[in-house]
Write a structure and sequence with these properties.
Blueprint (H helix, E strand, L loop, with lengths): L8 H6 L1 H7 L2 H9 L12 H8 L26 H6 L8 E6 L6 E2 L11 E2 H11 L1 E7 L9 E9 H7 L2 E3 L3 E6 L10 E5 H5 L9 E6 L2 E2 L9 E3 L12 E7 L22 E6 L3 E2 L5 E8 L7 E8 L17 E2 L1 E2 L38 E8 L5 E10 L22 E6 L2
Parallel strand pairs: 1-12, 14-21
Antiparallel strand pairs: 1-3, 2-6, 4-5, 5-9, 7-8, 7-12, 9-10, 9-11, 13-15, 15-19, 16-17, 16-20, 18-19, 20-21
Length: 422
């Protein structure tokens, strides 16, 4: 992933649900209406319940993920014959695991094409028989507010392959990159401290060599045949079309994304934005709004909303509106239907955070994933207003704190204009 072109991802995200239903036509909409994503509550106003019934699925189908891939041409656009030639199919893929030639680590058995010892897809599937892991993760870009998609990713811990090369000393960092059209100028690199690869700190899932998304083989657009997925990280760490792994004695990161003035070690932030907000309403008419929350490493305690009359001065308290009259929204419970194209709409067995018997989440919201929220605002007199929303994480810290800087992940408080008129 790189700094994307100026596309309004948020607008596209808000309209995802509409596209999702229209794709099926009237018959499909009727069928889906019988299976609401979220259970109805007798306490909810019908206006709010209607807005909730139209929320996007919790999981994203592979084809519906937003794409900010790099490359000229982009590797996923190559025809199948060319992808076979360059090792981007399951029967031709291989991964070299070698010492960094400039900052050597001691590696007893490097995995290389030259010695016919490179790690291949058959090797990966053998490991997967006993070592496969699955976990939900929101794939999101450091500089885009709107997530690219939410999925359940399946793979083998990266450390299992690292140990096959038998590193013995002078190993401090792991560098990796994917296919880049055999053009050094197009290479997109990322890296991790070796401690994160070898150990799952703070209850995190492992860094994986990923081959499936939502129970289905990765598509070329999603990085097939194999990509890295780093659970707590932004998307630039989860390199697609993986081909090379370097074990290095260098201490510093060499991420391509760092060259663009980005913080390459920042984990996912907790923040929220809206999905549906009426831009024009009548006076004294309740206003139903819905949205999503990215649940970062600090979790999610609540979502709050505040609507302000533009003719009035905002309350004192600084640019983050700490003293505004925020009111709690409803963080919606786990959905009844997961979406994402899951077989029989069932969470794959053994997925982290889910009960193996019932397939329901063990707690909610799930960190590193997303949740949906909704609120019914009271009717207002005629005028122009601004709606804002924010999260409060499990440490009691309100968005955009504790990390308000955009280069470590976007978490700005969203502002949406609403006009009230007859």
């Amino acid at each position: 992933m790189d700094n994307p072109p100026p596309i309004d991802f948020l607008t596209r995200h808000r309209h995802l649900t509409r596209r999702y239903f229209l794709r099926f036509g009237a018959a499909g909409m009727a069928a889906m209406s019988a299976l609401p994503l979220f259970a109805a509550s007798s306490k909810r106003d019908p206006v709010l319940q209607k807005a909730i019934d139209e929320i996007e699925p919790w999981l994203t189908k592979q084809d519906d993920f937003e794409d900010v891939s790099r490359g000229k041409p982009k590797p996923h656009s190559l025809d199948e014959e060319r992808r076979k030639e360059v090792g981007l199919t399951r029967d031709t893929w291989s991964l070299e695991v070698i010492s960094d030639p400039e900052h050597k680590a001691k590696v007893r058995k490097p995995l290389t094409k030259a010695k016919n010892t490179a790690f291949n897809f058959k090797d990966l599937m053998q490991l997967a028989q006993t070592r496969a892991v699955r976990f939900p993760k929101l794939m999101t870009c450091l500089n885009i507010g709107c997530p690219l998609g939410n999925g359940i990713w399946e793979g083998v811990p990266l450390r299992d392959v690292l140990w096959l090369a038998q590193p013995s000393k002078d190993l401090r960092r792991v560098y990796y990159h994917g296919y880049h059209n055999d053009d050094p100028e197009q290479m997109f690199r990322s890296s991790l401290p070796v401690g994160r690869v070898l150990e799952d700190l703070y209850g995190l899932p492992p860094v994986i060599l990923c081959y499936k998304l939502n129970g289905q083989w990765l598509t070329p657009e999603r990085g097939a045949p194999v990509r890295v997925v780093v659970p707590e990280a932004y998307g630039f760490k989860s390199i697609k079309w993986l081909t090379h792994l370097y074990l290095s004695n260098r201490w510093a990161a060499n991420d391509t994304y760092g060259e663009k003035n980005n913080d390459v070690d920042s984990p996912l932030k907790t923040f929220c934005e809206t999905l549906s907000v009426p831009t024009t309403v009548k006076p004294d008419q309740p206003i139903a709004v819905t949205g999503y929350a990215q649940v970062g490493v600090s979790g999610l305690k609540k979502v709050q909303v505040w609507i302000h009359n533009d003719d009035e001065e905002p309350p004192a308290g600084g640019k983050y509106f700490a003293n505004a009259p925020w009111r709690d929204a409803e963080v919606l419970p786990p959905p009844q239907a997961w979406g994402g194209g899951l077989a029989e709409d069932r969470i794959p067995p053994g997925t982290r955070g889910f009960d193996p018997q019932t397939g329901r989440p063990l707690h909610w919201p799930l960190k590193l994933s997303k949740a949906h929220w909704a609120a019914l605002l009271p009717g207002l007199p005629a005028g122009k207003y601004t709606l804002r929303c924010r999260t409060v994480d499990e440490n009691g810290i309100a968005q955009p704190m504790p990390r308000p800087f955009r280069k470590s992940g976007r978490a700005v408080i969203e502002q949406v204009g609403i006009t009230v008129k007859s």
